[in-house]
Amino acid sequence: MSPTSATAAVLDANGSWDLETPAANLLLRWDFENDGVWDTDYSTTRVLTHDFGVGSSHTIRLSVKDSSGQTSELVRTAQFGAITYVSGTLCTTTWSGTVVVQNDVLVSAGCTLTIAAGTNVLFTYLPGGLAGLQIDGTLNVNGTSDSPVLFSSYGIAKRTPSAWDGIYVRGAATITGAIVEDATQGLRYCTATNASVTDSVFEQNDTGITATCSTSGTLIVTGTTLSSNATNGAQLTYGTTQLQRVTAENNAQAGVVGSQNAVISVATSTFRGNKSHGIFLDANTTTSSSFSAISSTFRDNGGAGLDMNGSSRANVSQSDFISNNRGIYIEGCAALSVTTSNFRNHPYEAVLIDITSCASTSPITINYCNFTDNARLGALVNENPNLSDSSSTVGTHSATYSTPAGESILKARVGYSVSTYGTGSGILYDGNGVQLWSTSTASSATWIDISAKNVSSVYCFASGGTDWPVYVGVSGILYRKSNFPADLSVLVARTVNASQNYWKNSPPVVFSVSPSTLDVSNAATSPVAAGP
What does pTM read for this prediction? Predict the structure, then answer.
């Protein structure tokens, strides 16, 4: 809710969402005075302006109904009064009432900005530039659950993410009871000083919270919701971030992304309904993001509950992975330890360790966990068709490989080599002779994505001279096998200790390209004590 005058405000319910009903189909109605009389009928209108007339304080009730008739209500108190307009550099001061920021505001080093409970801080949209709040000194936000501090855009014209720049902390900050919406980065944390966010909401921003500076200190986020942001709930690149009792939900990409050297610890938190992953750890070979989670829930995410690649590391315990696309997805040389956790109701694998080659001995351990009703739609399989061809054999090509039940091939692992002075090319065809891929540069076996080609059979052909031949081979085929309830798929030769777990499918249905490196021994005969 954003006041536009001493008596009028924009009421915005765009943060409303439901797991089953699309947000655009939710029905909403308003009781402008919370007197038990609904002032509007149910409709799909999510943003409206209302003039309350007289009075400096109004309590508003919103009811939201889904397609099943289930309802949820929210009550919020709004404070009205004279509008104060601010811009430029300021020192120690206190804001209250309604404050309209007309251009960038800078709180200088050594100065403190205090914002009282119930204050509305509204940012004017600036064509060609965005207003924001930069803190080189100290920011104290003193909102409460009944009287939060609202940071939002000014007026109804720009009720979208990136309508203003956000709160940029380069000094120190203690933020309590804040609602931050419509910003490019709701909170950008870039300091060597510790900061805290408590009992707050970051919604409908481009990104809720970011920590993208190499000088970042420790950010502690407690009792806070990261919801309905246009990209990620949080984007954390450097420094240490502690998430305690945090809910990251319904974000258009991931709930939280950790990359580079970010250190992220999570306790008693929930990551649900995000379009891609609950948590995505992205690290290259020279840096390493680190993640730990205890007593947390990852559910109903469009991708994996936890997705890891590069050299990222994760430790997870006493947590639930429920009804994500997959529970945990590992690529590259990521290291993982999971204990006393539950994996259930995933349409694909509970844990997938993907095909990216890895020379590292980074450990993967999964112990004392329960695996129930996963991979209902199937699992990924990596087979070695051992196809090869040499240009020394004129007019021939390799044998043709076809998936067992006509499944579409997702990737093919193709290698091409050239003898001394040899020239030519290696070509991959589908079973009907349509070229899918070719190269004239020698390379070790590389995975080629052909998922868009919708083919179920392939062969390879080496084109070149016979005196100095060239060679091409296919050593891997990746496809999704239906009706294959593999709780665990290991598509690359890595050592995985998955002993002492309870598998509903007993013996467990697992898939590994190197069974000797996968340990599923000492399986429990009944569910083990696990979960939050």
Answer: 0.84
Phi and psi of 94, rounded to 5°?
-125, 135
Phi/psi at 426 (5° precision): -110, 135
**Distance separating alpha carbons of residues 441 and 224, to the nearest angstrom:** 52
* CA pair distance 142, 422, nearest whole angstrom: 73
pLDDT for 43 equals: 80
For the segment 89-99, the average pLDDT, to the nearest whole number, is 94
**Mean pLDDT value of segment 220-225:** 97
Query: Taking the alpha carbons of 422, 427, 433, 435 in that order, is the dihedral positive or negative?
Result: negative
104 and 131 Cβ atoms separated by less than 8 Å: yes
CB atoms within 10 A of CB 271: 32
- For the chain, the average pLDDT equals 89
- In three-state secondary structure terms, 452 is helix
Angle formed at CA 20 by CA 15 and CA 26, multiple of 5 degrees: 45
Question: Does pLDDT of 300 surpass 90?
Answer: yes
3-state secondary structure at position 100 = strand
Question: Which range among 62-66, 79-83, 400-404, 507-511 shows the weakest confidence by mean pLDDT?
Answer: 79-83
Mean pLDDT over 350-364 rounds to 80
- What whole-number distance in Å separates Cα of residue 68 and Cα of residue 421? 71
For residue 499, CA distances in Å to 206, 345, 509 come to 42, 21, 13
Tokens representing residue 229 in the block:
């942001």
Q: Computed over its alpha carbons, how large is the radius of gyration of the chain?
A: 28
